[in-house]
Amino acid sequence: MYPDLSYIMHALIGTAQGNAFSIVKTFGFFLALVFVVSGYFFNKELKRKEEEGLLTGTEEEELIGAPAPISALIINGLVGLLIGAKIPYIIANFDEFKLDGASVLFSSKGNILTGLLGAIALAGYTYYDFNKRKLDNPKIVKKTIMPHERSLDLVIMAAVSGIIGAKVFAIIDDFDQFLLDPFGTFFSGSGMAIYGGLIGAFFFMFFYCKSKKLKAIHLMDAAAPVLLLGYAIGRLGCHFSGDGDWGIVSDFAARPGWLAAFPDWLWGFDYPNNVNNDGVPIEGCTGHYCHKLPAPVYPTSVYEAIYGVTAFLIFWGIRKKVKIVGFLFFMYLLLNGIERYLIEIVRVNDVGEYFFGIPMTQAQGIAMIFVFCGILGMLVLWWRHKSGKPILF
């Protein structure tokens, strides 16, 4: 496995493990890749909908020539404080930062003097930058912004709200650990519940669309295939980092004969050098990540990645043919719910009691809600389409 980029570089070109490249964690790299790739396809789909007249621009007002607002000075000052305080500490404690950069960044560790200098420098530059463009008589300019021009903002806000939602759901699922170290648990780079991310991003983006007078249901359709592709890339990040999203111990005796042509690791994998350091020590291994699972398990993240890519290709191929607005998004909910419910059967996870005391995992409980919402949404949209009623939200 490749807990960080140094392990990937070692596999590709033979450089040492644990070098400076270890700053970049593998899961974080794939997470960044999710938003880059998703942003590209999302922007592409929004442009198509604009060309077909399904989405239109909205008019906004912008104040030109005003002096630097207090809010901008405060925000940039805080950013300068963080950068100025952390950089000297990171340089002096680089080994600690390589091991867990997130814990260092979101801790109280740092140099307060250089932090204050950074705050003054960035706030001062902000003041200078605004004032060199200041007009004697600031004016309001009206301009039309097309939906695809907001795609970067949408992706960034979806990323932030999704990460927060993922952390909140992960904390709910392992609340005892959160109570032991609330700050460290919330700001650590691990512990992310994918459904929490989806739900958090959905609600934030829905209300953002309403505030900008955008047709949310068209954006939901545009996001459906993108969510599938992002899901696949994210699951590859889980697999290559070995973050614990694996299955139960594999039963090789139950492997169908037609799968014998495929590599053994596709049926059972022991995740050497996994980022969690779960399992037993690897003989002769040196460094921080030196454990592997005692027995091969189902690589469920790989199965989900295969599902995500396949479903993305199908959705991308049919997106122009589905004429009922919103139908594609609710198809996504249905398909995603079914897939997640089934994969949980062979995944390692805590089982609780949901839906009138039925034993299942948290993800299976949410998956059932997704299936219900998907079916209900498709039925409602089909009925409204046949009745000639206007599109929803």
Keywords:
single chain, 393 residues, mainly alpha, 2 domains, two-stranded antiparallel ribbon, 6 strands, flat
Shape: flat
Report the helical percentage: 55-70%
Biggest sheet architecture: 2 strands, antiparallel
* Radius of gyration over all CA atoms, rounded: 24 Å
Class from helix and strand fractions: mainly alpha
Distance between the termini: 45 Å
How many helices? The count is: 14
Strand content: 5-15%
Mean pLDDT: 87
The total beta strand count reads 6
Characterize the structure shown.
By secondary structure, the chain is mainly α. It has two domains: 29-59 and 146-251 and 299-386, no CATH class; 64-141, no CATH class. Helices cover 58% and strands 7% of the residues. The chain is built from 14 helices and six strands. It has a two-stranded antiparallel sheet with strand order 1-2. A two-stranded antiparallel sheet has the order 3-4. A two-stranded antiparallel ribbon has the order 5-6. α11 runs antiparallel to α12 and α12 (300-318) runs antiparallel to α13 (327-343). The mean pLDDT is 87.
